[in-house]
Amino acid sequence: MTKKTETEQATDSGPAIPSRRSFFGRTAAIAAGSTALLASINNGAKAAGDPIPVGQAAPLTDFAAADGVEFKNGLTLACEEINAAGGILGRPLEPYFEDTKQMGDATNVQAVQRLIDRHSVHAILNGYNIGSGAAIQDPVADAGIIYIHYDTTIGHANLVKSDPKRYFGSFEGDPAEYWYGPGFLKFVQGLEETKQYKRTNNKMAVILSAGVYAANIANAVKETAKDYGWEISLFETVNVPISEWGPVLAKIRQDPPSVICITHFLPADLAQFAVQFAPNPTPSLVYMQYGPSVPAFREIGKEATNGVLFATVVGCLQDEIGTAFETRYKAKFGPNAGHNSGAQSYDGAMVWATAAALAGGSGEPGNDAQNRKVADRMRALIWRGVCGVTRFDPDGQSAYTYPTQTNDPSLGMPHQFLQIQDYTKGPVLIAPDPYGTGKFMTPPWIKS
């Protein structure tokens, strides 16, 4: 008997999942992250049956609202496009939203519980929420439904591994934040090896906030820096939100490092750093975490943001697939809409809906038997969406990252490195290959 591949393994019920080659071969449009596969599964059915309620708990107000609104937009657009393709086996999706405000475990759990109790949602399709990254999973597990989020935390994988039977339905749609650390160091090494950048010294300053996300990334940089020849000359924790960076900048200017690595991620705070750094800069690369991907960063910082580097392990790619999504997104939500954030919940919804259709439908709270079938399909999928490839690690149920965790771009979500080169335009994607659309630019404050 021929041994089946990972994606051909049959589950306890239902047909075997097709191989990776046949899966993508069913229709070229699946490579475009579209609903063509879903429409094929629906076999012409119209979305006219009983609606399937789906939920999202997002920070629609307070300091992270700029992202929260886009998470809502991403799910809204996904539901519309899924319904246009026939829904899930003829049943349309009906989204419900709850505000997590300042977030935190207690508030996040309350919002999720309302979605389950009031609306009987079959799935919760989030962006991120600040917190431990391991609290929402319990009410989800109690209800036996599916949960996809982009909290970007290693805590998720550790929790799933601790009790895979209980947390079968919890998935992290992007890689864990840990991978930002070694990924960033590898990126800088690549700039040096290609002679695009030459360090002025071996010093690196790391600035973090007290949250789990920022701290885990900062610690990953600190722990692996020496492997790349770096000395951590400053490791500074700041209280956030922060608008006054003077004390931190004084330390940086007193002992200028070759690289400044900031793992805090709120766009308004990071824009203030850029504005206050610009009048008296050090000859340092400035790397920031995620926040510059939000348009508000450039709107606040303006010229001071030119030259800033940032990264995201999940974001809309600047290719044919990503630009088509951006066009649809901005046509619906406005030219200044943050499609990079909306892409997260959009892709998550597409992955879940496709898996549910393959599994014969989704399950309401209490119907964990059906949702286990959905989870089986999710673990077997290799989905090429607007953010790249979603393929879940079967143990921790987080997306694989490329190129640090896998060197095959068809099997991992790209860890994108971008640079703002003209604040009046979108950022330039400079790595990794083959996704890059531009070249690294020496920041204007570094004189040759």
Helix-strand topology string: HHEHEHEHEHEHEHEHEHEHEHHHEEEEEE
CATH domain topology of the largest domain? Rossmann fold
Given helix and strand content, the structural type is: alpha/beta
Unreliable stretches covering 5 or more consecutive residues: 1-33
SS field, number of helical segments: 14
Compute the number of strand runs: 16
- Tell me the strand percentage band: 15-25%
Q: What does the radius of gyration come to?
A: 22 Å
Strand sequence of the main sheet, in spatial order?
7-6-8-9-10-15-16
Mean pLDDT: 91
**Major sheet details:** 7 strands, mixed
* Helix content percent band: 25-40%
Tally of domains: 2
The CATH architecture of the largest domain can be named as 3-Layer(aba) Sandwich
Report, as a whole number of angstroms, the end-to-end distance.
Answer: 64 Å
CATH superfamily of the largest domain: Response regulator
Anisotropy-based shape: globular
The top-level CATH class of the largest domain is Alpha Beta
Pfam families: Peripla_BP_6
Region (Disordered): 1-20
Family: Belongs to the leucine-binding protein family.
Domain Leucine-binding protein: 51-397
Describe the structure.
The chain has 448 residues and is of the alpha/beta class. Helix content is 37%, strand content 16%. It folds into two domains: 6-175 and 317-402, 3-Layer(aba) Sandwich (Rossmann fold); 178-312 and 415-431, Response regulator (Rossmann fold, 3-Layer(aba) Sandwich). It has 14 helices and 16 strands. A seven-stranded mixed sheet has the order 7-6-8-9-10-15-16, with helices on both faces. The protein has a five-stranded parallel sheet with strand order 2-1-3-4-5. It has a two-stranded antiparallel sheet with strand order 11-12. Strand 8, helix 10 (267-277) and strand 9 (285-289) form a beta-alpha-beta unit. Helix 3 runs parallel beside helix 13 and helix 7 (180-193) crosses helix 8. The radius of gyration is 22 Å and the shape is globular. Residues 1-20 are annotated as: Disordered. Pfam families: Peripla_BP_6. Keywords: Amino-acid transport, Signal, Transport.
